Amino acid sequence: MSSRIAVLVSGGGSNLQAVFNAIDAGAIRGEVCLVLSSAEKAYALQRARARGVPALALARRRFASPAECDTARHQALVSAAPDLIVLAGYLGIVPQETVAAFPGRILNIHPALLPSFGGPGMHGIAVHRAVLAAGCRVSGASVHFVDETVDTGPIVLQGSVPVYENDTPESLAERVLGVEHRILPKAVALFCEGRLSVQGRKATIM
Ligand code: GRF
Fold first, then answer.
1. What is the spatial distance between Cα 68 and Cα 47, in angstroms, rounded to a whole number?
2. 131, 164 in Cβ contact below 8 A?
3. What is this structure's pTM?
C-alpha cells in the first residue's frame, strides 16, 4: 500500500528532491501527491512540475488576510487527502486547523539539533548564525512531528555535524543540509512503513 505524501515548500526544494530521489530508489513506499508552496517563484515548484506532480503556490500576498490564506492552504491539503504532510524548507506556520486535522501525520525538517536553536524566527541562515555565535562545537538537523507550537513536536531523527573554527553561517548551512537530505527521506520512509509511534512527547521507531 503506497502512502500519499503532501510536501510544503518555500524555496529551492533540495529536501523535496531528496524525497523524490528516495522514492525513485525504492526507499520510500509512497508518492508525492501535492507540492504546496508559500512562494510563487520557489524552484521547488519546478522540481515538482518536472515530475508531473501537482504543484500549487498559495502566497500570502494574494489573500486579503492571513486567515484566508491559511484556509486556502488547509483546503488544498485536505483535498489532496495525504497520509503524511512533510514540511521541507517551509517558512510558513501550519494553521492550527491543519495540525488538528492531521494529528501525528506532519513531519518537519529543522536545520539544528532541537530543542536548541528552534522556535519562532529560527529558520534558514539565522539558525546557523546563532549556532556560531553560541560557540557550539557540533550542530546538525532534526526531523520532528509538528504539534501546536513551533519546532517543539516529538523528535524522530537527528544527525550531527562538526562546527569548525573557520565556519561561516553559509559553510555550516551547507554541511547541515547534507544531513537534512539524509534524515528527512529516512523519517518519511519509516512513517510510510508504519514504524513510527508517538507517546506523549516521545516518538519511537519500531
Ligand atoms: C534550508 O535552509 C534548510 O536548512 C531548511 O530549509 C532551507 C531550504 O531547504 N530546512 P530546501 O532546499 O528548500 O529544501
1. 27
2. no
3. 0.97
Atom 13, ligand 1: residue with shortest CA distance: 13
Residue position matching grid coordinates 488538528: 100
The CA-atom distances, in angstroms, between 56 and each of 19, 73, 76, 152, 204 are 18, 10, 9, 27, 33
Give per-residue pLDDT as tens, 151-201.
899 999 999 999 999 999 999 999 999 999 999 999 999 999 999 999 989
Pairing of strands 30-37, 55-57: parallel
Q: Is the peptide bond before 95 cis (omega within 30 degrees of 0)?
A: no
Nearest atom (ligand 1) to Cα of 12: 13
CA of 67 to the centre of ligand 1 (A): 25
Burial class of 166 by CB neighbour count within 10 A (0 to 12, 13 to 18, 19+): exposed
The rounded distance, in Å, linking the Cα atoms of 89 and 176 is 13
Ligand 1 centroid from CA 178, angstroms = 10
Is 110 a known active-site residue?
yes
